């Protein structure tokens, strides 16, 4: 496994396992299998409602806690200093661990200043080894770093061959923040698994399109957290460290960038309104 070093010196696996939309039982089974296969970075969130499943898996897996890198995220409705503190304690209990390797603010909504203050405090106390944000686009990111003591060590954004965040990545690096990709397969959109450019490159390296898509990210220093409930696909996604994309390969993939999100445009009011309604957030 290749590691990436965060701004505070903590080493984080560059490839991990995501658990979005999985039940607790399925999460326990899949995370156990993922660890058996070789994953050490496991990504969950309060909003996924499967932290218990992750906790059960990491306790039973037979791998020492120090070898694992566990990430969770503070949900929008737990925003604010006091709520965030309480929710973090709840996450620690559910994950059955004395510390969490990385905690992110899940969305740039509600009182994220208060949440960040709680995370800074947890970081200083040793309950959390690294802190960061998720879905913070340039305006919200700059708002936070300008008025905070500690810069985010990670910004987790929807990132894939069709949304590469080239300029955002350069901007984040200026503040010592690493880019982490969620939805690295673009949720299967834009015909990614039938894309001719990716298919030709995959054949050239005797790899799958999925492996090429992941290799493109990690070769650009972007952490990726693919998800699969199938053990053979977990193995396939992990098997990307025995080949490299050429400069020509990378240039062709860079040309696929549409600069568009698949899940939600965080700068579009209508998308945000739909998001709030989907998760029943707010008082209206």
From TrEMBL:
Q: What is the lineage of its organism?
A: Bacteria, Bacillati, Bacillota, Clostridia, Peptostreptococcales
Q: Which Gene3D superfamilies match?
A: NADP-dependent oxidoreductase domain (3.20.20.100)
Molecular function terms, GO-annotated: oxidoreductase activity, acting on the CH-OH group of donors, NAD or NADP as acceptor
Which residues bear the site annotation Lowers pKa of active site Tyr?
73
The regions listed as transmembrane in this protein's record are none
Put simply, this protein is called Aldo/keto reductase
Q: Where is the NADP-dependent oxidoreductase domain?
A: 16-257
Q: Where is the active site?
A: 48
Family designation: Belongs to the aldo/keto reductase family.
Q: Does the record bear Glycoprotein in its keywords?
A: no
- Organism of origin is Lentihominibacter hominis
């Amino acid at each position: 496994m290749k590691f990436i070093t965060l701004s505070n010196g903590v080493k984080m696996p560059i490839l991990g396992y995501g658990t979005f939309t999985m039940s607790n039982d399925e999460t326990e089974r899949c995370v156990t299998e993922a660890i058996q296969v070789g994953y050490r970075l496991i990504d969950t969130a309060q909003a996924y409602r499967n932290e218990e499943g992750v906790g059960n898996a990491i306790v039973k897996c037979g791998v020492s806690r120090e070898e694992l890198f566990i990430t969770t995220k503070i949900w929008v409705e737990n925003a604010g200093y006091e709520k965030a503190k309480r929710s973090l304690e709840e996450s620690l209990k559910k994950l059955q661990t004395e510390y969490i390797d990385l905690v992110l603010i899940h969305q740039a909504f509600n009182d994220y200043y208060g949440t960040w203050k709680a995370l800074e405090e947890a970081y200083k106390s040793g309950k959390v080894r690294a802190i960061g944000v998720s879905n913070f686009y340039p305006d919200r990111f700059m708002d936070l770093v300008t008025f905070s003591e500690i810069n985010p060590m990670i910004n987790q954004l929807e990132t894939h061959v069709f949304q590469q965040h080239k300029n955002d990545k350069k901007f984040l690096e200026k503040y010592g923040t690493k880019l982490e990709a969620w939805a690295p397969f673009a949720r299967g959109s834009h015909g990614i698994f039938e894309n001719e450019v990716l298919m030709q490159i995959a054949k050239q390296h005797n790899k799958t399109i999925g492996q090429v898509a992941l290799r493109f990210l990690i070769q650009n220093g972007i952490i990726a957290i693919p998800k699969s409930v199938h053990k053979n696909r977990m193995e396939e996604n992990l098997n990307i460290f025995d080949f490299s994309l050429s400069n020509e390969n990378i240039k062709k993939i860079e040309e696929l960038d549409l600069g568009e999100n698949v899940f939600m445009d965080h700068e579009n009011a209508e998308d945000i309104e739909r998001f709030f309604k989907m998760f029943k957030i707010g008082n209206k």
